[in-house]
Amino acid sequence: MPHYNYTALNETGAKTTGRITANSKREALEAIHRLKLFPLGVEDSQKGEISLEVFQRRVSDTQISAALLQLADLLENGVPVLHAFQILEKQTPNPRLQSVIKNLHDRISEGESVDSAFSAHSNVFSELTVSIIRAGAEGAFLEDALRRVGGFLDQQAELRGKVIAAMMYPAIIFCVGLMFVVGILVFLVPQFEEIFVIMEAQGQQLPWATQSLFWMRDTLMTYGLYIIGGGVVLFIWIQGQLSTAWGVRIWDRIKMRLPLLGNIILEGAVARLCRVLGTLLNNGVPIIKSLEISSQSTGNSILADAVRRSVESVSSGEPLAKPLSESGIIPPQVMAMIGVAEESNTLETVLVNTADSLERQSARQLDMLVRVLEPMLLLGVGGVVFYIIVALVFPIFNMDMGG
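The structure corresponding to this sequence follows.
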């Protein structure tokens, strides 16, 4: 966040100087006016300096959640807002988050609202977080809003951690198996090459398995660097396409159609939509704004487009269930619950409960998939190793029998 040095006149006409933090020079001037000062000059104190923010540690959702929950505890126990931010700054281990909290304190002390101060750090606090805090500040339930969004972020981080942990073991098996096979091809197979050359010179026909094994070994040794280079180029190209809107849409559509995984990915996206939308509505955010924010948090552009299209229908007075069901993306059982919830005016509660149910269901499906995937990978690695052993030993066994 830029810092601005200013020179100004106070109410008595005396010249004063100071330093203020703001997103832009215009915001700095507005902040100076709020201090009842007449600015004479404002300059960026960091002009010509190199920002090191890129190299600072990222602020995780878990750290943000812990800070928000601690702030809620402090405010609920009667600690004044500014003092609460001072305490929070001292107890925050992440240097970047510590700097952000200090800036929040400075902004609020200069007269900015709490939600406005949070919104100035969009690279740390999501629009969801800012919207819930804004609703809490306007509705006089800031502590509850902080606790809700902190709990939500913590729950999302926990779910993400479970998914990563579940996929870690299969990924390790795959990588170790691949390295093992490559090691055999590079170091073990050449030890048998001289024997097989002699056998071929004597007119013996090598089995297809042995021939294909040496073909793979020769290909790897001759074109290995080109294959790796091509893979890197392909990866970079794919990453570049994923930074475009159409690339993201194609990838999201592919993910939803993957066997076994596609249904889990879709249910996870729908669960995020239901939880974010329910949390926003439960905190007093208008439904149109809630739909706009929740569409950005699904992690799936196809579902996000369906939610954005529903905004027009809802704003014209139609129930939410109708445009969402027409998209054909959200599971029918979820749409049935949303329809009933709208009629009974319990939409926010049903959405959160639906998110809990979908997340439990996705977790069970993911656990089952991992349980199936682990032995399949082990069998796959074992099959490849068996194929290599047969390709190397069978010709020698036949040569011994012939002798």
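The two ends are 82 Å apart (CA to CA).
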